[in-house]
């Protein structure tokens, strides 16, 4: 019997349609696994490499995590800009259509 993504719901008899659907699900799951393996563990892990030598600055940066704040902003700004871009394109499509 074939390995199913959800073995509890595997059919007792395999038909052609069942094998096709299961094949598509398996291909999609493999694709998502490969995409996930290419992504970094955390987008914020490389942002904290700056280590100041002054103890006062270290304390201030410990109280106010500037590096993490900048990392979050660096991820959020392109997302917001893409949203506005899609919004502008949708408005133009509405005007033209």
Summarize the structure.
The chain contains three helices and no strands. It has 97 residues and is mostly helical.
Mind explaining what this structure looks like?
This protein is mostly helical and 97 residues long. It contains 3 helices and no strands. The chain has helices at 16-38, 55-63, 66-96. It is flat.
| Regions with little confidence, pLDDT below 50 for 5+ residues | none
Order of helices and strands: HHH
The helix content is: 55-70%
Secondary structure class reads mainly alpha
* Shape by Cα distribution: flat
Secondary structure: number of strands = 0
Percentage of residues in DSSP E strands: under 5%
The number of helical segments is 3
What is the arithmetic mean of pLDDT?
A: 80
Most strands sheet: none
End-to-end span in angstroms?
A: 52 Å
Query: Radius of gyration, Cα only, in angstroms?
Result: 24 Å
Descriptive terms for the model:
97 residues; mainly alpha
Write the topology of this structure:
Blueprint: H1 16-38, H2 55-63, H3 66-96
């Amino acid at each position: 019997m074939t390995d199913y993504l959800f073995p509890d719901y595997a059919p007792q008899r395999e038909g052609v349609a069942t094998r096709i659907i299961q094949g598509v699900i398996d291909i999609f799951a493999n694709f998502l696994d490969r995409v996930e393996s290419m992504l970094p563990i955390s987008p914020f892990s490389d942002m904290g490499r700056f280590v100041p030598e002054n103890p006062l600055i270290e304390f201030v940066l410990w109280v106010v995590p500037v590096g993490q704040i900048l990392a979050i902003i660096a991820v959020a700004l392109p997302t917001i800009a893409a949203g506005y871009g899609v919004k502008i394109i949708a408005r133009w499509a509405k005007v033209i259509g």
